[in-house]
Amino acid sequence: MFRAGSSKLSAPLRFRRTLATHVIQTPPVVTRVTRHDWSKQEIQQIYESPLLELVFRAANVHRQHHDPSKIQLCTLMNIKTGGCSEDCSYCSQSSRYSTPTKASRLVDIDPVLEAARKAKENGSTRFCMGAAWRDLAGRKRGFEKILKMVREVRGMGMEVCTTLGMLSPEQARQLKEAGLTAYNHNLDTSREFYPKVITTRSYDDRLDTISAVRDAGISVCSGGILGLGESDEDRVGLIFEVSNMPEHPESFPVNALVPIKGTPLEDNDPVSYQALLRTVATARIVLPQTIIRLAAGRQTLDESKQAMCFMAGANAVFTGEQMLTTPCSPWDEDKAMMSRWGLEGMRSFEQVNVARKEGSRLLDSPSTPDVEAEAAPRSSVSQQAL
Fold first, then answer.
1. Is the pLDDT of residue 13 over 60?
2. Region annotation Disordered: residue ranges (predicted)?
């Protein structure tokens, strides 16, 4: 037998012990560069990567740029229903289709303010208002009423978003002056597939409105709808379009088509959950600072599927009584779900990019959080490398 005290073995023993216990400390590499030059091929490779690897990578990116325990709660109200002259093939509000949705006038201000107060009491910090219009041409009185709605809701300390169709630069400027936080104008799908879905408004028309909104200093909310009959390449094409904008949208809504009787897409098959999850995760990697919003169709996902989307980078939901014309998960259910998963709601103007665009308006308001405090990085958020 060898003896432990042997001089011949003492050096090797020390060497082996060192290997077993010594850990080389390598500083973590933190990637914080936001790119605006993604190619379709690069995004396609991300989208097609093994699903669990994709979600893992997206989760790391999410933790570099966001607090993973925070979810933004948003409530959407339809302030003018139906009668739209557009032919969006998924929409029950088009006047070209015979659907259960009936046209109505622009609602009065008081019901909107009541709905906004109720949303705030239930934890929503962004209140969105949608009107079924192609544009605001010839709607001077209606637009003035909407500007007042924006001012009043903003006065409650909430973020305010509208979707009113196409905007001119002057209309965008007026909305900004009234206190609008964000404007929703979805691209819906890829440039290539878009003409199969809509013919009354071009892709470039949509991009022009987004440019007007961005130039006015309003945060852009622009995403798409899955389940229109598009391919994986079209989902990649949608992310490619927004990733190459001069500024990435502040939020990227991911909608799953809710087929409505009477529309051309009423018989479409539901989009697969895997496609939805891949879209969320790919968008998170390519749009690292953007809020990824689970929108229409979320109520069809069970809790575990929603949790996986949150893991992959989704950090906002629509909650409340209803979306525009489709069902919505109610506040109580969403708050209970978030509690079970250890999630909490964001405060108004908590997202850094939104706070930056609001600038002095927030600093002058006693009802909103301090911009610099909200913009400060959180020490508890992991800074792992990709």
1. no
2. 358-386
